[in-house]
Amino acid sequence: LSVICEGRDMTTVVFPQAEFKFYLDASIDVQAKRRFEQGVSNLSLEEIRQAIIKRDEMDRNKAEGALKKAPDAVYIDTSDLTINQVCEIIESKLKTKGLTMAQKEVEQNIDQSSKDDIHTQLEESINKMEQVEDNVLVQGKVVQVTDDTVFVDVNCKSEGKIPLAEFGDDVPKVGSTITVYLISQFGKNGPEVSKIRADEKRLWEGFKTAFSEKTAVDGKIASLTKGGYMVDLGGGISAFLPISQADSQKVEKAEKLLGTKGQFYIERLYSDGRRNVVVNRRKYLEEKIDANREKFFEEVRIGDTVKGSVKSFTSFGAFIDLGGFDG
User: Fold this and answer.
1) Quick one: pLDDT at residue 234?
2) pLDDT for 277-288, tens place per residue?
3) 3-state secondary structure of 252
4) Helix (H, G, I), strand (E, B) or coil at 280
5) In whole angstroms, what separates CA 173 from the centre of its chain?
6) More confident residue, 111 or 141
7) 154 and 185 inside one domain
8) Strand partners, 223
9) Structural domain contains residue 150
10) In sequence order, which residues have a C-beta less than 8 Å from that of residue 22 and are 6 or more positions away?
11) Residue 118, Cβ density class (10 Å: 0-12 exposed, 13-18 middle, ≥19 buried)
């Protein structure tokens, strides 16, 4: 088997018995300058430099597959070398052992036991690796926060990048662990991850539980729509609230409930196989009123003096709020 592999743990974990091992390095300033000149990042040169320092520190301290030089690897400082010069050094090291790359290939094809050995190493290494799948929730460690991006280690080749705006006012701290949605390990610019998608998926699982167990969920009446309101349930998920189910009393002025935060029962999650959430606030309010009334009469006796708030007057008297229900 003739193969050239690159990675921080290729010579220490994946192929510890490889015959040729090289550890390529460069100064932090040179690494930052090379990355900056690639033009693939919106970060400044100093920001890139600091990101590399943090990344390398994190890689050196990984429990599995840490960044370190194998004892028998050839160390090459590429800071002042071109790509061709690095290749010449590697080729000369191979020839020093009396083998050209072509001779090495022939010898490996003849030596079946060596081939089997490498296959065994590769299979064992793959079996030890923690498998990462796409389209799942994963735990990630925040490694850097800039003015517009959060960089998260999700156990892939490079860090995932999430727009800072997805976190709202809850900006994570470097070193903290967050839950993100891994869309793809191999996005255009590294792992494609999302905080909003993670929030939506977790919320949706909670909504399904609330629907089946008939428990209430939090929401905010956000806007008017035909026949009722749209309720913001968080995570980019909205629900329809019929105006007839918006309050415990008849709604005279629809605008008065805009911005109201409270709890809602989920009446429906799907329609025609698609998400179509419908909620009910009236049912929740009526249950609270009944509970408050029952509690009041359990604790108060005829002849007791109680306090209440006048809610409204009518031609035949006044309605008094006695603590969650009218009397």
Assistant:
1) 85
2) 999 999 999 998
3) coil
4) strand
5) 14
6) 141
7) yes
8) 230
9) yes
10) 11, 73, 74, 76, 90, 93
11) middle
Q: What's the token pair of residue 98? A: 């009396």
Q: How far apart are CA 219 and CA 99, in angstroms?
A: 71
Tell whether 194 and 266 lie within a shared domain.
no
Q: What is the pLDDT of residue 129?
A: 46
Model confidence pLDDT, tens digit, residues 94-138:
777 655 455 555 555 555 555 555 556 555 554 554 555 667 888
Q: Are residues 61 and 170 in the same domain?
A: no
Tell me the one-letter amino acid at 50: Q
First-to-last alpha carbon distance for the chain, in angstroms, is: 87
The CATH code of the domain that includes 163 is 2.40.50.140
Residue 146: closest CA among 163, 168, 167, 158: 163
User: Is residue 254 in some structural domain?
Assistant: yes
Domain span at residue 95 reads: 10-128
Domains of the chain: total: 3
Last-in-domain residue among 96, 128, 160: 128
